[in-house]
# Entry
Amino acid sequence: MRDRIAVLTLNRPEKRNAVNDTLIQDLHRFFSDPPKDALVGVVRANGDHFCAGLDLSEHKERDVDEAFEHSRYWHRTFDLIQYGGLPFVAAMHGAVMGGGLEFAATAHVRVAEPSTIYQLPEGRRGIYVGGGASIRVARVIGPGRMTEMMLTGRRMNAEEGQQLGLSHHLVGEGEAFDKAMELAETIAGNAPLANKMMLNTIQRIDRMGESEGYFVESLASALTQASDDAREGMRAFLEKRDIRFDK
# Structure
């Protein structure tokens, strides 16, 4: 913890921080019950790469049912990150590939360095993504672009990823973590209820019809406007002082 920011570090640089079952289980435990005083989470990685995808050295053969349940566990874990209520910022560099890109796509804010490269190589290895890329990555870059990435195994550089939305901020080499912490501090200054509404409402409305989306937006607006945080925000504005949200 740094102040009220929970910092997670991927720390298997000798494996290029490849995803294994232990990492997914650790993420599931953490986001099922994050520290009570954490307002934002930040993930970074030691070594030259953020996450180079699935750890093939630990890959084991599974029958259809086992492979299905394994994929569904990834989905449940990554849903906890995206919709759990804790804003999550990813500081990326080097390889962000396969399962690493699926993990990064769960982050609400993504910061990249010039060394960042994105790839979905599963199709070239005779398999298909199983950690949610068909939804999360396809929604960011479009299903056609994702199909092309998988068919060809093409790598995208940091600039291409920035243009397509795989990162929200592109900073200098070695600067992603500092920028992620700066953004996390800004996010931590928001009202907790407002943050929770942003994380849980916008993505869901995107999948609704207009009428349903407007209705849910009105509910979120009403809940936040009737909160103590909203009253504090208005008082602080009128009294020309800093906001003091109850956190």
Observations:
- The chain has two domains: 5-188, 192-238.
- The longest strand covers residues 5-10.
- The longest helix spans residues 64-83.
- Residues 5-188 form a domain with the 2-enoyl-CoA Hydratase; Chain A, domain 1 fold (CATH 3.90.226.10).
